What does this fold into?
Amino acid sequence: MVTFSAHDGTRLAYHESGDGPRLICLPGGPMQSAAYLGDLGGLTSHHRLTGLDPRGTGQSAVPRDVSSYRCDRLVGDVEALREHLGLDCTDLLAHSGGANLAVLYAARHPDRVARLLLITPSVYAVGLEITPEDRLATARLRRNEPWFAPAYSALQAVTAGRATADSWSAVAPFWHARWDDDARAFDDAGDRAKNYEAAALYGAQGAFSPAETRAALASFTSPVLVVAGEKDLAAPPRVMREFAELFPNAELSVQPGAGHFPWRDDAARFAAIVKSFTGR
It folds into this structure.
């Protein structure tokens, strides 16, 4: 773990592992430390992974100004990391909610991103719509799972705006290709690693300007990879196809059988997808 100073003086931490071309990794959550990314399905065999702990998470300090948790303001933290590392440009990978930050960074600093990898990305920054039926239809791919009936009922409550705290815990199996003790432990660790105060401010008013961002991404010519999980109701493949179409030089890879964490669901396949893209 290494620390550096953000532009406002907040001490931020990042973690490095592996050998090869550098890949800066932005975690999701939003506002969860990068620890849950692990080695991203064995990417450390091909890449030097640099996982940033967003301010207020993991080993990064809590800022004096909590409004700096807003996603558009976090762009400066990614730029400060690039400057600290002495890179003219970098490959940038982001998962889930971290993809909002990645696309805002690419829109603001297009010349600083050599390749952009968006893994089961959130769509708030670009203003795409995921309908209730998108989620429900994707969920029905799991109809033969022993846990399906109560989880699907809870998802119906969530999509209808009738969610309770129990509803959110009941839909957890949908995020994973295998709902077992390991997946439960992974989710529990993620809950403990997330800064919920920061997450509530991440998408605060003013954080996103989707029309402006989409216009900027239409001129972003670096290669882009969007990875979707076939069974991921958080980032359904239909919407991920629309996401990829926002860029002039993007490709979509739908990983068979995968949920929201494709590197955990089939590490070898995920690593092969990424290696094929970054090796060109």
User: Anything to note?
Assistant: The longest strand covers residues 11-17. Residues 71-85 form the longest helix (15 residues). The chain has a mean pLDDT of 97. DSSP finds eleven helices and eight strands in the chain.
